[in-house]
Structure formats: structure tokens, C-alpha cells
Amino acid sequence: MHPHWLRTKLPTGKNFNEIKGILREKRLHTVCEEAICPNIGDCFERRAATFLILGDICTRQCGFCAVKKGSPYGVDEEEPHRVAEAIKIMELRYVVITSVTRDDLIDGGALVYAKTIKCIREHIKNCKIEVLIPDFGGDSVALETVINARPDILNHNIETVPSLYSQVRPMANYERSLGLLKKTREKDSSLTTKSGVMLGLGESWDEIINVMKDIRNAGCDMLTIGQYLSPKKNALPIRRYYTPEEFDILRRAGENIGFNHIESGPLVRSSYHAETQSDDIFV
What we know:
- Helices cover 37% and strands 15% of the residues.
- The chain contains eleven helices and ten strands.
- The protein has helices spanning 14-25, 31-34, 40-45, 79-90, 110-123, 140-148, 165-168, 174-187, 205-217, 244-257, 274-277; strands spanning 29-30, 50-53, 57-58, 68-69, 94-99, 128-132, 153-155, 192-199, 222-227, 261-264.
- Helix 5 (110-123) links the parallel strand 5 and strand 6.
């Protein structure tokens, strides 16, 4: 049983059903659905969704994620256009684009990210675009492909502390992920960067603070901190629930460390209320 501050309403409502209909009509995936996000009801009812491109099968074996794992095949060349069409129908003015990790592709799917950004720009005027990208296996050229497409915010989640990487992100690398944030800052200092971590997997308080400092030292502008919730039976267990007061302490710590914006709370997710998270950046 989750603490009372983690309870959410059952997803329902006119907008919720309409958004689901648009997604099915356009044959699109969202991380909201595939990752079993607890905020899906709130987001869809507010006509917000985080689009999941490059299919719905991930090549990584992260222990915290509910997205299907396996061996995907090929790329849907029309997917970027359908994403843009859905965003136009939904009348979004801020959108988050993320993806499964595609280690089977030479560029990790970077070109599809770039095409999706381009299609959105062509279809919708004045729509801010945030991309939540994988690590592309450390490929700097793939990263530059996305940066050169000019998203408004580039997000890459660190997810957890270094000591837990072998359990939580066994196919990822802490230094490689930090390096991605550093390379982004070096390539384009005007591009806003963002990252996120989840708590409750067995990390210590000091480890949390040290990761926050590492992320900020990588030149990251924005940070999100939320509670890990095990999405399915065989996922990693929850080791601890942090209280809203503890998340507030971490928010203040992040402000002192120097983040331009920090969102910290039990139900905070990287893309949850992303449009308001960016208010401090786009003034």
C-alpha cells in the first residue's frame, strides 16, 4: 500500500478518452501508457502527453521500467509526421518527445528525433519542443544530430546514483550519461539542458546530494526528482518512500546548488507538467 500522498485518481474524463482516441487513430505510443505512469489521468485530461517514438520495444533491460523489452525491427518512416499531426489536433503549445532505446540502430535513432522535431516545426508554429533522449551509446555524432535539430530543451535522465547503476541501469553508464550532458553544453551553450533522478531504490541521502552536484557540474539547467514506484511485479522493489517534506528539502538543496529550476515531489516525473517546469526558463 502506497502512502496517502502517492494516491491518484482513476484515469477518466472527456479529454482523457479523446486523447487516447487520437493516439490510436495515429498509431502512436506514449511513455504515459507504456511505462504505466501514475499521472496519466491528470496529463491526458489536461490534453498533455509524452510521445514515445521509435516504436514500443526497448533494447535495454532497465530494472525500473515497464516498457516492453526485446528486439525491435526497422523504423517507421512516417512516425514523425503522425506525431506532428497528433500534436496539431491536440493543439499543444509544449510537447515532450522521448523514445525507447534502440541500440540496434547505427545512430540509436537520432535521425528520427531530428525528423520529428522538423515535422513539428513545419506543422505547428510556436510549439516548444523538449526531447528526452537515451544515451545513444555515447555516440557524439548522434547527439549532435539531435542538438542541430534545435529542440528547446534537451533532457537526459541520470535516473539513480552510481552505486545502483548495475541494478537499475545495467546497460547504461553513469559517467557516459553525465558526459552527454557535458557534451551538450559544450556543443551549444544556449540550449537548455535537463535531467532527472528517482528515489526509493536504496540510495543514501549523501548519494542523492552528490548526484545533484554532479548533474549541475555537468552544466545542467533543470532537474526533476521523484519517487520510484514499482510498475509491475518483476520490477525492482521500492526500498523507501520519501515524504513530501524530504522532497521539499531536496528542492531547496537543488536551488542552493545552482539549478535554474528544480521540481521535487513524490509524483514528479521528468515530463509531468513539463510546460510549467520550463516557465522559469522561457520568460
